[in-house]
Amino acid sequence: MRSREISTIRNLLKKEDVRQRETICLIASENYISQNVKEALSSNIINKYAEGIPYKRHYPGCMIADKLEEYGEKLAKKLFKTDEANLQPYSGSIANLIAFKAILKKGDIVLAMHPYDGGHSTHATKYNISGQIYKTFFYRVNRDGLIDYDIIRRSAKKTRPTLIIAGSSFYPQEINYKSFYEIAKEVGAYFLADIAHPAGLIAANLHNSPAEYADIITSTTHKTLRGPRGGLIMFKSKFKRAVSEALYPGVQGGPLLNVIAAKAIAFAEALDESFIKYQRMVVHNTMFLCQLLKELGFKLYTGGSTNHLIIIDLKPVGINASQIEKELESINITSNALPVPGRDGKTADGLRIGTAAITTLGYQECDLQGIAEILYYIIIKREIDRASKIQKSIIRRVKNY
Ligand code: DSN
To answer: Ligand 1, closest atom to CA 27?
Structure first.
């Protein structure tokens, strides 16, 4: 046994536990899993190979795996009201690649949100393998920073895509999936909704769902959905064969059955009334924080938020968001610097913060007040020590809840 090496790794994991306990996580794409999800992740089912789909595997001994995966699919379909679901994608990025492979041919045209405006790098951008396989055009947000369906319609008519993608990593408003569907229908394109960010809000019926409209839906399972890190793909029944073949052997090998079990548990949790309450609280906390920030003089992209994330526009303050991200990290607060949508995408002039993780921990209005003050002291007053004191008092208070 290489006990020294093992204890090095154990110590690092313990340190990460401490880091998480002492940090205020404002990263909009992170969350905390439940004990049940954690238990599933450490289950012995990880030892099993199960390439293929339930009851059509390339390995013997899959009788439990079949039942488990089938049950997880059933829960996903119930939660999102889709025809089909596949829990095998290793991540949201891979789920997108699988979806493209299932419905597109090399060289097909894709119309997606511009990466400067929050479109994901895996939406056939030049930074991703998908951008080398397909030809991509991008739509931008309008002058108010909003998704503008007339702009998308004009762009779709001009570019005649085979696929239109809805989905963004930093859009603080609800996306209208019906409008996307209508545009796709007008130009004869497929419609893919990547719901990685708002999945929890959609599952709780707080945001409209693309289930009725999209040919394929991709997602991660760990953001607002609060499951294990991983991907999910849902689709109309006619794509069942194409998706399973694109998944295996097209893109992936053996599924991670422990993660599939953990996803299934997260879906079961999301079907519970308590999850709807949690999502309502996420939105409440976001809106409350928006109000506090506006009172303190901050300018917010799109004027506020109706989901789990807020983008503070730092252009009027004249400080680079990467510097603010670093200063916040130095006092144990994590957030993301990014370009404010609708601009040149070259400057990190926006700070993305989210409420999904802190709401899981039970942060209350007084804690949100503290967070708003921290941002004020860091960004406006430039008083890091004062901000650090407030951070520590929030961590102490949250421990006592
Ligand atoms: N990396 C995720 C985010 O932070 O939004 C998107 O995949």
So the answer is: 4
